[in-house]
Amino acid sequence: MFVELGVGIWTNALVLLADAGHMFLDATALGLAWWAAHIADRGFDQKLSYGYHRFQVLAAFVNGLTLVVLVIWISVEATMRLFSPEAMLPLPALLVAIAGFVVNLIAFRWLHDTSGNTNIRSAALHVLGDLLGSTAAIAASLAVLMFGWLYADPVLTLLIVVILSRGAYYVVKESAHILLEGVPEGVDLMEIKTTLADEVSDVIQIHHVHAWGLTAEKPLLTLHALVNEGAKVQVVIEDIKRVLRNVYNIEHSTIQVEIGPCPDDHGEHEHDEHSH
Fold it and tell me: Which of 115, 139, 147, 235 is 20 to 30 A from 190, comparing alpha carbons?
């Protein structure tokens, strides 16, 4: 990334700068995954009772916003070069682009050989995107070197910008959703209500269901369960937690069991929530 950045400025090759930006996206994504695993070992304390997991989400959000600014700058610069092409030094740009391609190819082979793990599969897809970026940089450098076609630099830069924009949009969208306490992907609140009411004996109704995530991989959930009078509360709670764990992969849940009217309703009846 740093080599592409330096040589991109020296050779005036915008396509290398764009590819360096794309590598920045992927390097930070991998770095955040490592950092998250590292700081998660700290557990929790009196100030952060849920632990330090959210740091990776906050860092990803800032990273995504930085990439949005980078995408805008590269797009403006590429558009200006379409109207007024600038000369570049194609040979050094080509050599660096080839070197980047080889490095990414080696990384992809390493990751592809151990692609049974979801995180590693995700990393392999990042590197595949970098391979495409390096290919575009090689093509642009060759076009200028062999044919003197200066438009190749901005045109292929815009191609990388499209790839980079998708990545930046996904990072910002996912991290903002988590920071806004959005319902985690794959968690259907209505389905959870219906399943628990059907699967767990003595449960009459499930309501006040709230789900959010510490990170994309750590969903949390709270709910109220209206149960039959005489129900064994401890058994009901254990059964609910078992279903949440086994069916929805929710490890951390807080259950409020009620035998009469919900004390949190304050006279307001939630028609949509109570239907199942």
Answer: 235
Query: Measured between alpha carbons, how far is 11 from 7 in angstroms, rounded to an integer?
Result: 6
Structure tokens at 214: 């510490």
**Domains along the chain?**
2-179 (1.20.1510.10), 189-274 (3.30.70.1350)
Q: Are 185 and 156 in contact (CB under 8 A)?
A: no
Whether 146 contacts 120, CB under 8 Å: no
128-146 confidence digits (pLDDT tens): 878 888 898 999 999 999 9
Q: How is 46-82 classified by DSSP, letter by letter?
A: SS-TT-STHHHHHHHHHHHHHHHHHHHHHHHHHHHHH
Sign of the C-alpha dihedral computed for residues 254, 259, 265 and 269 taken in this order = positive
**For 218, which DSSP code?**
-
